[in-house]
Automatic annotation (TrEMBL):
Residue ranges of domain G-protein coupled receptors family 1 profile in the record: 1-239
Superkingdom as given in the UniProt entry: Eukaryota
PANTHER family according to UniProt: B2 BRADYKININ RECEPTOR/ANGIOTENSIN II RECEPTOR, MELATONIN RECEPTOR TYPE 1B
Pfam families: 7tm_1
Localization: Cell membrane
Membrane topology listed for this record: Multi-pass membrane protein
Annotated protein name in UniProt: G-protein coupled receptors family 1 profile domain-containing protein
UniProt region (Disordered), positions on chain: 271-294
Organism: Eleutherodactylus coqui (Puerto Rican coqui)
Transmembrane segments: 7-26, 46-67, 88-109, 129-159, 180-207, 219-242
Matches recorded under PROSITE patterns: G_PROTEIN_RECEP_F1_1, G_PROTEIN_RECEP_F1_2
KW Transmembrane (keyword) present: yes
Family to which the UniProt record says this protein belongs: Belongs to the G-protein coupled receptor 1 family.
InterPro entries from the UniProt entry: GPCR_Rhodpsn (IPR000276), GPCR_Rhodpsn_7TM (IPR017452), Mel_1A/1B_rcpt (IPR002278), Melatonin_rcpt (IPR000025)
Length: 294
């Protein structure tokens, strides 16, 4: 059950990263080539809305992953009861419902507009100060606080357990299990680094738009914006660098694109073989810990 729960949140995060590349980013390229928005107001609003869904969905999914890992490692005795298959699907659906609820108000406050500085239809921070502050708190400050707490607790437990088992001949935690946890931790750190500048600028502008907004250099806003939206591209790189399973799958996908016949032969062989079951690690809070393969 642990593998299903962990992978469900990762797949949901991957979907949030992918959706922005399928619609908003191509329209941004068109705007760059044409040196302005030429696709009409409807595409502008929709692309801005989809971009908002991707951004807020990413941080909510990162928060869900952190809570899942925290429960799995720090509260292993109740993990399987809490993260059942149905509960996991409910949590993923809840993440996207909350994402939509946080993004829909853009249409009511009229904050989705074309910004020529970044060639994008996006959320304009100066349209509604109250909504900007609320969005920064909900989308950035609260999730970052929750995720920081979860990973701090996990790191404390990891350090305690690694110290306990130093003298033992048989380690309680596989190196691959630790790398899987490390991968998701790095995803969070990169997200915080990429999104912090734009959110702090938005918060400062929202608190005092008339005084602060004119003082923000254009280059700083553009840099912080592209730092934020490059985060969706970095996650796939992080998975490939830190996770052996992802590297194998990346290689398999590239090989399938280069030699499709071998790919379909591999699928046909795999369909006739039954995968062997593999017991998940079972460790308690006193002297053991649990992690799963993401």
């Amino acid at each position: 059950m642990s593998s299903l729960a962990g992978n469900a949140f990762v797949v949901s995060l991957a979907f949030a990263d992918l959706v922005v590349a399928l619609y908003p980013y191509p329209l941004v390229l068109v705007a760059i080539f044409k040196n302005g928005w030429a696709l009409g107001d409807m595409h502008c609003k929709v692309s801005g809305f989809v971009m908002g869904l991707s951004v807020i969905g990413s941080i909510f999914n990162i928060t869900g992953i952190a809570i899942n890992r925290y429960c799995y490692i720090c509260h292993s005795l109740v993990y399987d009861k809490f993260f059942t298959a149905w509960n996991t699907m409910f949590f993923v659906c809840l993440i996207w419902v909350l994402t939509v609820l946080a993004t829909v108000p853009n249409f009511f406050v009229g904050s989705l507009e074309y910004d020529p500085r970044i060639y994008s239809c996006t959320f304009v921070q100066t349209v509604s100060s109250s909504y900007t502050i609320t969005l920064v708190v909900i989308h950035f400050i609260v999730p970052i606080t929750v995720v920081t707490f979860c990973y701090l607790r996990i790191w404390i437990l990891v350090i305690q357990v690694r110290r306990k088992v130093k003298s033992e001949t048989k380690p309680r935690m596989k190196p691959s299990d630790f790398r899987n946890f490390l991968t998701m931790f790095v995803v969070f750190v990169i997200f915080a680094f990429c999104w912090a500048p734009l959110n702090f600028i938005g918060l400062a502008v929202a608190i005092n738009p008339t005084e602060v907004a004119p003082k923000i250099p254009e280059w700083l806003f553009v840099l912080s914006y592209f730092m934020a939206y490059s985060n969706s591209c970095l996650n796939a790189v992080i998975y490939g660098l830190l996770n052996q399973n992802f590297r194998k799958e990346y290689k398999r996908i590239l090989m399938s694109l280069w030699m499709p016949r071998l790919f379909f032969q591999e699928i046909s062989r795999g369909g006739t073989e039954c995968p062997k079951s593999k017991p998940s690690p079972a460790l308690n809070n006193n002297d053991q810990m649990r992690t799963d393969t993401v």
